[in-house]
Amino acid sequence: MEYEQGLSSAVVQGRPFPSSVPATGPSPPPKLSREAQHAWQSGQDIGEKTSQEIRYQIERNESAESLSGEEGLREKETREAARSVFKMNGKFADGPYSGILDSVLDAIGNTPMVRMKRLAKVYGLECDLLAKCEFMSAGGSVKDRIGKAMVEKAEREGRLKAGDTLIEPTSGNTGIGLALAAAVRGYRMIVTMPAKMSAEKSNIMKCLGAEIVRTPTEAAWNDENSHMGVAAKLQRELENAHILDQYNNTANPMVHYDVTAEEIITQCDGDIDMVVIGAGTGGTITGIGRKIKERCPKCKVVGVDPKGSILAVPDSLNDEKRLQSYEVEGIGYDFVPGVLDRKVVDEWVKVGDAESFTTARAIIRNEGLFVGGSSGANVWGALQAARQLKKGQKCVVLLPDSSRNYMSKFISDEWMAEHGFAPEDGAKVKEREKQFGGARIRDLLSETGATSDVPFVTARLSVEDVIKMMHETKVKEVIVTEDSEADGKTKLVGVLSEDHIAHSLQSGRCAMQSPVKDIAFKKLAKALPSAYLRDVAKALDFSPYVCVMDEKPSTKKQAGMGEHERAKISLRKAGNSRECPHFLGVITRIDLLHWLATKQK
């Protein structure tokens, strides 16, 4: 990749920041009233008095060398504490934030490097495990850097002018970085992002003034309904709208080549044996990897790619769960972005959701670093790759974003249990067993007469048509299906409730003329009539419905299953089912409560 000239102001020569801050002795402000001059002089007198007291304390501390016994020990401890504080403050004075910054954009980058001693010890690493804490940047992620860089590049090129609109398809962090820049520079910001991305990211961008458009998570990158397809459509429809395009914008890898990599090299005194970075758009690993290859030829560049993504090389590494959805955000793609140069990567590590989230929680618990899920993925990759390193060698791992974005996701014990990444609370299990005992779904169906006539609607129907139909038939849920173009078979898309439709309309996720396929609830719990109600109750903690399917086996494999095996409830996307199953009904939480009330009577 040929790097453009133009970020010369960001290029770091030698040390990235001045080693000292020039003194700016006090001088009286001009044109003050007599009262103001008196107040100013009083302030200087107080400052001089404080300085005299500090000099006296220093002289007193130095004289402690001649003291002995307990008094001398106390003075020595006081002196060491003062020197420690001075040394700490000196680090701040030595950095770029010692004065007043012009805007928050000047606080982007210059993130600390932290040694993760406890985690390295827990996992038996001999080398130094060093964390580049990008989550401590002004906007909370490594993407702050490219948000600022892409806006500045567009301004230099004359593409952006006051009042223009920025549009960006993103997993969230680039949207935050761009929204931060747009807020400061005065641009309108529209972000398109997949539905799976956390509500916290969306809410932060809204607070920054961005407009959010959610798109289906399962839509392929080249689908017109994907976050990229919707962004392109908005750009065509709006005047003076620009997609800065992090996937192909050279400012993305350039800012990491010019700045981020220089910070890492300087912080490690030019001695790095391995650097581990997750790949999303690929700008971070491309920019940092290329600069480090030039400056530290012995350093090994390790890329981290989630299972389900196809970025790793050789392609056979991507076979496990190829193009299947995954929960970790911010890394991995179903296409290879233009800014990703995979030749700079020496080794790839594939990582699953469970390893990513449990490792992220381990980082928080053991190191006190408030990181996001992709940081967990990167560190897990580092823990695998760095086993080959010896004592005294350095492994740098990049921590892209903050746990601020995931308070309702992997930070939550309930969310972890829901997705099978952590064991469920034992007290909840016992409570459900006490409530439901050995009762099964078939008991609920026979004793309460739960409805089984949930209507089916086609995926192409508009939201308006479905609302009208639900009103006329007085139903609260509908099953959404569509016919496969390949073989004509009907497949299940999902379920819709009146509450879900109302929420989608209010949040702007759909319009009255939108097809119901766009908003159908696709992650459904499915169960046979032989499933235990206590398991249904658990499923309803995480899904608004449990779809009850006909118990009649449709294959020899299912016919050979035991009762316990067939009774399991699977929580999966409805679209994974090739044919629309025969439904006996949809169970909701109110159905369970009705059954409990009936039993108590």
Automatic annotation (TrEMBL):
InterPro entries: CBS_dom (IPR000644), CBS_dom_sf (IPR046342), Cys_Synth/Cystath_Beta-Synth (IPR050214), Cysta_beta_synth (IPR005857), P-phosphate_BS (IPR001216), TrpB-like_PALP (IPR001926), TrpB-like_PALP_sf (IPR036052). Residues 46-63 have a biased composition (Basic and acidic residues). Residues 450-512 form the CBS domain. GO terms for cellular component: cytoplasm. It comes from the Eukaryota. Keywords: Amino-acid biosynthesis, CBS domain, Cysteine biosynthesis, Lyase, Pyridoxal phosphate. Its cofactor is pyridoxal 5'-phosphate. It catalyses: L-homocysteine + L-serine = L,L-cystathionine + H2O. One of its GO terms (biological process) is cysteine biosynthetic process via cystathionine. It is an enzyme of class 4 (lyase). Pathway: Amino-acid biosynthesis; L-cysteine biosynthesis; L-cysteine from L-homocysteine and L-serine: step 1/2. Residues 1-11 have a biased composition (Polar residues). Belongs to the cysteine synthase/cystathionine beta-synthase family. NCBIfam families: cysta_beta (TIGR01137). This is Cystathionine beta-synthase.
